[in-house]
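>> received
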Amino acid sequence: MSPPDESGQSMPTDYEIAQSVEKAPITDVVEPFGLGEEDLELNGDYKAKVKLDATERIREEHDDDGKLVLVTGMTPTPMGEGKTVTTVGLGQAFNQIGKDALVAIREPSLGPVFGVKGGAAGGGYSQVLPMEDINLHFTGDLHALTSAHNLISTMLDNHIKQGNELDIAVNWVNWPRAMDMNDRVLRETVVGLGGDVTGVPREDGFILTAASELMAVLCLADSIEDLKERVSRIIVAYDEDGNPVTADDIEATGAVVILLKEALKPNVVQTIEGTPAFVHGGPFANIAHGTNSLIADDVAAHLSEYLVTEAGFGSDLGAEKFMDIVCRFGDMEPDAVTLVASVRALKYHGKDMWPADLDELEDEDVAAVREGFENLDKHVRNLQKFGVPVVVAVNRFPGDTDAEVQAVLDHCEDDLGVRAAESNVFSDGGEGGIDLAEKLTDAAEEESAFEPLYSADDSIKEKIETIATEVYGADGAEYHGDAEDDIERMEELGYDDVPVCMSKTFHSLSDDPSKKGAPEGWTLEVKEVYPSAGAGFLVALTGDVLTLPGLPADPAAADMDIDPDGTVSGLF
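>> returned
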């Protein structure tokens, strides 16, 4: 059972709640929003993909987009502060106050599901269903991406083995293997140890499927044609003269897109209260752009009065990239932003705690909450720089006291001058988010002055340093290793007019995960700059960001089980 709620009663587990809900056929769920059965490819009774011709029809027939509400957060504890729960609950809350709302979130990756966080389908009475399917194999999108990614790897090494007509530099292959599991021993490998039979020996490694550039490509493509174009220009290696070698050069484009053609179609499911939810794509926010697919957002925005979508990790990562990358590519802009805060995250920063001791965060400590305000304040100020109204959602956990929650609400309204609401969507579903939904409705009706932080025409260094100083709070940026040479090569290759996607730890506003609050007097260290040419942005590596996480000492998988009748436990 879950911890007691405010009444002292223990809540059922997420799985028990999910199993207790009588789901409606997905055709009935989406029909009021203008999606007919002929628009869907059913995957059982409760899951479906939206056909690509239907997405085109919806775009043509619905001229006006609904209001777009972005959900982001303050710098989280390692356990997360409830952005997905808030996103799902907020969609339900909008419908409870008479607004036609849809939800769009990312698909879970099996790595985190079996690792630290467990499932990623919301929680409590604000979940997307069927929770078990969504957290596991769902509609096979992650498996398709894994296969497509590794097909490129296979064709690349085969090209080298079969004579290397493109004169690929074996030590300049930059396309690793991928898998959807947190298997740290595969981060660095050596392949080709069989010589002439098995292939040329070289260093290689694995990344998590969600970290693949193909995931970013899938989530930014708006059609099969666009997907082909993006895949074709992915840089997989360089030749002996330093010229890029693309997926198209090794003749992988067509086969890769064949593997991805079904994955491109948005998935639609339902929340506990019957709100349609698009769950599609899942790029990491610490190394990629961190939001669900652009095609899902576009379709959902055309079908609803309010679309609630989510950006990964804190606003310094997910929200910044949503504003500077996704909105730029998708020609869209948010009407309001919800910044999710929690009492425990504020204490985490107030106590300057690294690594996190979550047990120590359970006791009431209003002083520590107040000490953590500097992190919250920085995220609010950052979001306001984009010209979008901000509403703080205080996601309440069972152990939070009234005094702690009230301290946050008072600070937001009295000191920051921003709207704030207590959110109880975990325990109360949509009803627990009505105050938040009403405040967001007011905010979204205000005149928006949205603008990205930088121009695409700014130099690569200007873009990096704008993000470093304006968002992270650094004094500037320094370039180490080959970063200066990387930038010069990117300029020579014509990649100086695209957005920059920062690869940075999510544990801190800075590039040092141990620094809490809102660090000052530091300099961002850039170690490498490389192109995600298919996605359409540059990636700037800072600090040590793992593209293949490992399992913790007590992985979530260790507490999972299944009974003879098929009942699952421990999946949350």
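>> The mean pLDDT is 93.
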